[in-house]
Write a sequence for this structure.
């Protein structure tokens, strides 16, 4: 079983719509969680960290469910510029390494 | 600051040829990483370094070697390239904050390598 699994999508949504997707992780000891964004043929960049209590950053909301071992990302009022691949990232305690999911592709259409 | 830079951006090799990919960062980061990204596979860690003069194997180290002679540079070598090494290679760096290892990683723009 992969450490981090994501629905690859693609999620095709119209501008202004809300889109949400999840990521599951296999190691219950996982400590920290992030969403990275990757534009086509570009490098990944940190979108937001995911905190236990859930957190928002503008139109983006991230949630963590430790009992079911998944994190989620919700994008409200989608913009064309939100079209990208969203990578779920998980770390383990005392580990220098990050585990990346394969990504969920979101396409926002006009 | 340039952040993380990688050279070259593109390269085509023939099977059996060797090459070195260079990663440089100007953020004084302790940790540096080499990943490869293939369609449907996500980013897979090849090797990483937690400081100058140190290296360690990641998830897919076979066929690659690395060196970290200077803090700001992390080199990835392919001694005898194979078609299976066709991929996009990303270098990343991050900073250390004591016991908290889970800091943001800053990525370079990538090297697109094709092995024929």
């Amino acid at each position: 079983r992969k450490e981090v699994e994501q629905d690859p999508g693609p999620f095709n949504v119209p501008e202004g719509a809300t889109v949400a997707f999840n990521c599951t992780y296999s190691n219950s000891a996982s400590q920290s969680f992030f969403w990275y964004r990757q534009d086509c043929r570009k490098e990944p960049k940190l979108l937001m960290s995911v905190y236990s209590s859930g957190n928002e950053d503008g139109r983006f909301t991230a949630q963590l469910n430790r009992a079911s071992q998944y994190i989620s990302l919700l994008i409200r009022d989608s913009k064309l510029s939100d079209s990208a691949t969203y990578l779920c990232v998980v770390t383990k305690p005392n580990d220098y390494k990050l585990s990346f999911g394969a990504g969920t592709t979101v396409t926002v259409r006009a | 600051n340039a952040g993380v830079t990688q050279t070259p951006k593109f390269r085509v090799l023939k099977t059996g040829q060797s090459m070195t990919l260079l990663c440089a960062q100007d953020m004084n980061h302790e940790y540096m990483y080499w990943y490869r990204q293939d369609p449907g596979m996500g980013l897979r860690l090849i090797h990483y370094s937690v400081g100058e003069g140190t290296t360690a194997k990641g998830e897919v180290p076979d066929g690659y070697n690395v060196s970290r002679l200077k803090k700001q540079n992390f080199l990835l070598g392919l001694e005898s390239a194979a078609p299976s090494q066709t991929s996009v290679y990303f270098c990343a760096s991050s900073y250390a904050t004591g016991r908290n290892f889970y800091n943001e990683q800053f990525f370079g723009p990538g090297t697109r390598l094709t092995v024929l």
Notes: The interface with chain A takes residues 31, 33, 35, 40-45, 48, 50, 58, 88, 90, 99, 101-102, 104-105, 107-110 of chain B (CB under 8 Å).
